[in-house]
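agent> fetching stored inputs for the 6-O-phosphoryl inosine monophosphate docking request
agent> found them:
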Amino acid sequence: MIPLQEENTCVIGLQWGDEGKGKIVDFIAERADVVVRYCGGANAGHTVRIGGEKYSTHLLPVGVLRPGKMNIIGNGVVLDPAVLFREIDALAARGVAVTPANLRISYKTHLVMPHHMQEDASREQSSEGAAIGTTRRGIGPSYADKMHRATAFRVADLVDETKLKHRIGQVVGEKNKVLRALYDLPPMDWKQVFELYRDFGRRIAPFVDDTTFLLLQYAGEGKRMVFEGAHAVLLDVDHGTYPYVTSSNCSGLGVYTGAGVPPQMVQNFLGVIKAYNTRVGGGPFPTEQDNDIGNYIRERGHEYGTTTGRPRRCGWFDAVAARYSVDLCGVNSLAITLLDVLSGLDHLNICTAYKYRGSRLPYFRADMDVLAEVEPIFETLPGWRGNISGCRNFAELPPEAQQYVKRIEQLLGAPINMISVGPERAAILMR
Ligand code: GDP
Ligand code: IMO
Ligand code: MG
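agent> prediction call returned; pasting tokens
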């Protein structure tokens, strides 16, 4: 039996991603020993700013930025080895060492292969059927193959070169036929793919581990863990705004299977919300402001994708959607980020219910057809002026900012314990 840990926290985004999870994980990781990524892949982009330096990670847990922390890439992740090693090399060039001493990767983790990138991009460009607006990182096709099984590759497959050669020959041959038939793509040279992945295998070998065993061992030693959610509840493949979602269980519900740990190992679910809403890619967005308000938020919040650089769609805070995320995942504490971005607006709107076919809908429906029709019902609160990035106590915030935070807390039914007022590591206040 594992001893009950009081301090393990899973950090999840409650909107459509980019809530500032990276910053919050980095903050709480100071008091933790281990940081675990459990879902998604290089479609994520988590940013931490330390002393004016910006660090963005896509696959590596942000715990690599703090010396002495162990980092785990769990089995629920889909790993593109090319991105992983690019990220490790870029950090090394900036003096941040990522070695087997601070990073372990589950042997069960699935791989993103070159044909997954091709499938993703070709499907998005195809004129047949609507595009999802994916990051084109091969995420959907890799997860599809994981479920399909016969054509999937895991980290464990990289270690036996003879077997790897055989399987890559077979699977790339099969994929070439499909990609040619569907998108008229020229065939990939399977030998080149094999050589590339054989070399990745040689480099990844010292990082590969049985991470479930490792995490259970850490639990036995009383080590504290932070589970770093990627994406967000509304992008979860089962519970988000399907089909405009990503392909993993990136709500808090995916942490157990994705990290490979029993439920007793995660006690706290810390939900991260930004002070307004954003979305990248397609899909419904009831509170979207495709106008001066949206532009104001985008420019002040630098709302451009960390992974693709696409401008993010911006809008008012949607308490109906965020409440759904809180309830679904049992969120027991909240962090609000980017509050400083809203400074200077005369008034702020919060969506407290939807109007649907003439009646009031007080709860969220993760249903495209319903969401495409709903109209947000807004409550209007006064705005505030001035730069709040230097505030370090709740009482220092303008009264209107305090009122805004308290109202969101009331609507979501969970305490807001952390307020982030700037991108820097230190720009955070505890409440
Ligand atoms: P994640 O994917 O949830 O980790 O979020 P991203 O890193 O993709 O996007 C959040 C962006 O907001 C990053 O550029 C952060 O540096 C920045 N950020 C985080 N918290 C704050 C904040 O409180 N204020 C401001 N102005 N920027 C913030
Ligand atoms: P972080 O962890 C914002 C969105 C994409 C697209 C949809 C599907 O940084 O918050 P995919 O490439 O996953 O098949 O794309 O999901 N998406 C994100 N949007 N932040 C993310 O991650 C995202 N991860 C996926 O924009 O709409
Ligand atoms: Mg991001």
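agent> quick read of the result: The two ends are 35 Å apart (CA to CA).
agent> awaiting further instructions
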